[in-house]
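User: Hi! I'm working on a homework problem where we have to compare a predicted structure to a textbook description. Could you give me the structure for the chain below?
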Amino acid sequence: MSLIPKGFKFSGVRCGLKNKRNDIGIVVSEVPAVGAGVFTTNNVRAACVDHSRSVVAEGKLRAVVVNSGNANCCTGSQGERDTERMSELAAKGLGLEPDQVAVGSTGVIGHLLDMGKVEQGIREATTKLGDDPRPFMDAILTTDLVEKWARLAGGELTWTQCPNSDVEDAEGPIVYGVAKGSGMIAPNMATMLGYVVTDYDATGLDLQAILKRVADRSFNCMTVDGDTSTNDMLIVLANGASGIHASESELEDALFQVCVSLAKQIARDGEGATKLVEIRVTGTDDPKKIARSIGESPLVKTAMFGCDPNWGRILMAAGKAGVPFDSSDIFLKVSAQDEEFVLFESGRPAAFDAKRVSGALKSDHVVIDLQIGEGDTATVYTCDFGYGYVRINAEYHT
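Assistant: Happy to help. Predicted structure tokens:
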């Protein structure tokens, strides 16, 4: 059986927008599908965002063509025409109409696309469609260090770094997602490029509403640096090729499992990052706002890079979120390498072995657990800030 859902094909080729790696990718459903998408809320946005939002709204979505190496953003009317041309070329090669093809772009802002290269790449990509999604994954990467994919099949979730990631055989429908993202990550739906396909039958379901809820609990709970990109999109296609109709709750849970795995992988692969930092906040009227404040604090993130159990920075970041709470109710612990360490409780520092905690924080996955009384719990996924973040972003354009 295939690694990907039935009725979908992927391709990826190199046209020369980047110095190496593929830079044009296509994913297409061979049969009519139900589509949905969520997009950046940044007022400065690329032409591909408006185009793809329109395609999703028309309800005819069948395919996506993506380029990396150039965001085609802030490029005026020529950039808009270039986006339309990408859609037209992909549609022609796929036997579709342009209003069935969404467009994604990622890379440097403010430069016109080299359409000679793009046109050649799209024509080639439409002839190289197959069951292997890896060329497509490679084609959407920019500063990413690793590819990012997640697959739910037969009740088993596998992903890029999963020990069982080579498992391919499964019974029933498959949900398969790929994503790119490493910097300029602070979702306000969504941040990065994400494409999820499934052969579940979603007819009669409000897939757009389902996707919005899934995004709010996954990608919108992720931050690398607090910057919302100009090109962000998350698109889902469900083509029903498995013959199995999903209930609303069944499909939402399946999409959530795949999307939250992708969100964690993006946070872990943050530019210059060495670890995934999971922040859980319980209590107050807005625990998510507090968790995001902690996750976006440069002082917290550099402390995590330095393996410094500096609870003062965490409480500072929680307090500046603007959400009222009583500091005497605070209970703070960190977990890493299968150990838990209480750092602060009942309004005062707890006794802990700083050297031992620092050693545990060398883990590639750290959980910060902040409890401020009773109430709901919110989780935000982020990463540390290392030397590489400054280097990558200082040199990104020049």
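For your comparison, note the following. The CA atoms of residues 283 and 375 lie 4 Å apart. The first strand starts at residue 8 and ends at 13. Good luck with the assignment!
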